[in-house]
Design a protein that fits this description.
Blueprint lengths: L3 H6 L1 H6 L3 E9 L9 H15 L3 H12 L3 E8 L2 H4 L7 H18 L3 E8 L6 H16 L3 E9 L3 E3 H17 L11 E5 L20 E8 L1 H9 L6 H30 L3 E8 L9 H7 L10 H19 L8 E2 L7 H8 L5 H7 L7 E7 L4 H18 L3 E8 L7 E3 L6 E3 L9 H4 L4 E2 L9
Parallel strand pairs: 1-2, 2-3, 3-4, 4-6, 7-8, 8-9, 10-11
Antiparallel strand pairs: 1-7, 4-5, 5-14, 6-11, 12-13
Helix pairs in contact: 3-6, 4-10, 6-7, 7-8, 8-15, 9-10, 9-11, 10-12
């Protein structure tokens, strides 16, 4: 039972340490919207989303006022459109029509993002899923609030290398089509391995087919709170450090539990999960890099960084599962470069490279996130980066992702501005040695031996 004493205890965290609920996300199943006629399908999608989520923004604002807890985003996730459009969509234009419908829903409901313009192709692609993937560049160009994700691998199925190759090409095309805005279309597109069905965070959120008709998932974030707790452990041993992070994560998760229960009650929608992800913002003091440096690193990227991130991620999860019986989604620490001022500083001073970031993804919540690279980078190189990251997820039985932006017309030494929570990023050098022969092999990388658990 959550009481007002726990809320009062968080006042300092909210006022001085940037604690917030990053998102209330309603997951909505669109399976009952399916139809052979694209116009009927779009009408069904619009009617269901605008009915189920009509009070989402108002409810979030009321909870903010009641408890004084900032709720930064109100979002929607839907059943992967690769499934939903399989009967009606005969061309990429049909899928783009659905994307426009989703964007219209987001605008009318005043939500920040709607996720689920997605395909799950870890073992193979249906013709409809291929069409959806091929439609992504145009869909990202003509919409403002739609996010897209493609799951190309899993521990159970292996990695679909045909999809990996295709996604390198799709990312390049998306960058070119949105070059007037620093290739921002790629900031709304992520490639995943082991994507969870209940992730409330964008751009990878979708409503899994195993979920209920609609559900409330809440994502909490508090890097500033954790940073201040770590600073109080200066000179202490690792046991004390870990215990402090764990206790802090417990308190943060309880805030999310309160908000989730209130939202569920007010919207009359079942509660799903709390996602305790330390997601940074460009604001000073709201940085994962600051947390890691608080443990004793001169700069994130220095030797010891991966170990420090492993500590942070593990203790966040341990504290979260003690605070709520339904911790899910991603839950851990995000390391997006453009959204974290400490990460940006580390890239600019040469301490943090793409290769070091890849090493860190072995122990973080997601993967290579919001990283700007030269626009001249080839699609094969992008596919190689994706393949490496998918392999880390497949072998380690964890979610990994690539949200990378080849900024058309820009090169190393330049900076790209995205604005808002997406922040800005220095363009990172990429290894230019060719991997196209490897990528062009095609087929599927088999699942690892430890996937066989039946």
């Amino acid at each position: 039972m959550i009481n007002l004493f726990e809320v009062a205890e968080t006042n300092k965290m909210i006022e001085q340490e940037n604690l917030d609920v990053r998102t209330i996300t309603i997951g909505i199943s669109l399976l009952d919207c399916m139809d052979h006629d694209i116009d009927v399908l779009c009408k069904n999608i619009y009617n269901k989303i605008t009915t189920v989520a009509k009070d989402l923004v108002k409810t979030g604002e009321e909870i903010e006022k009641k408890y004084g807890i900032p709720i930064v985003n109100k979002r929607i996730s839907v059943t992967p459109i690769g499934f939903v459009g399989s009967n009606a969509c005969k061309s990429t234009k049909d899928f783009v029509k659905i994307a426009k419908t989703l964007d219209r829903c987001a605008a009318e409901l005043k939500v920040n993002f709607i996720g689920g313009y997605s395909a799950i192709v870890s073992k193979g692609m249906t013709p409809a899923e291929r069409l959806l993937i091929e439609s992504i560049p145009e869909a990202m160009k003509v919409t403002s609030n739609v996010c897209s994700s493609v799951n190309v691998g899993s521990t159970k199925t292996g990695i679909n290398m045909d999809a990996v190759k295709l996604m390198g090409e799709i990312i390049k095309e998306t960058a070119d089509l949105t070059k007037e805005n620093d290739s921002i279309g790629c900031a709304k597109l992520v490639v995943l391995c082991n994507a969870p069905d209940d992730n409330p965070f964008m751009a990878g959120a979708f409503h899994g087919v195993s979920e209920a008709d609609c559900i409330i998932n809440v994502g909490v974030s508090g890097p500033g709170v954790v940073k201040n707790a770590i600073e109080k452990c200066k000179g202490e041993d690792f046991g004390k450090l870990c215990e402090t992070i764990k206790k802090t994560a417990f308190k943060i998760t309880r805030v999310g539990q309160l908000v989730a229960q209130e939202a569920s009650k007010m919207l009359n929608i079942p509660f799903g999960i709390i996602d305790l992800s330390l997601a940074p913002t460009p604001a000073v003091g709201d940085s994962i890099a600051d947390c890691l440096e608080g443990m004793g690193l001169k700069s994130v990227g220095a030797p010891g960084t991966t170990a420090a991130l492993a500590i942070l991620n593990d203790q966040v999860k341990k504290g979260g599962v003690m605070a709520s019986s339904y911790v899910g989604g991603l839950s851990g620490a995000f390391i997006p470069v453009s959204e974290d001022q400490g990460m940006i500083n580390a890239v600019e001073n040469g301490a943090l490279t793409l290769e070091k970031l890849e090493a860190m993804t072995c122990v973080c919540s997601v993967g290579l996130d919001m990283i700007a690279i030269p626009g001249k980078t080839s699609s094969a190189t992008i596919s190689g980066i994706i393949a490496d990251e998918m392999a880390i997820g497949m072998i380690n039985q964890k979610t990994t992702a690539v949200r990378i932006i080849p900024v058309t017309g820009k090169d190393v030494g330049e900076t790209v501005e995205f604005g808002g929570l997406l922040g800005y990023a220095p363009i990172i050098p990429v290894n230019e040695f060719d991997c196209s022969e490897f990528i062009n092999r095609g087929g599927r990388i088999p699942a690892p031996i430890h996937s066989f658990k039946n």
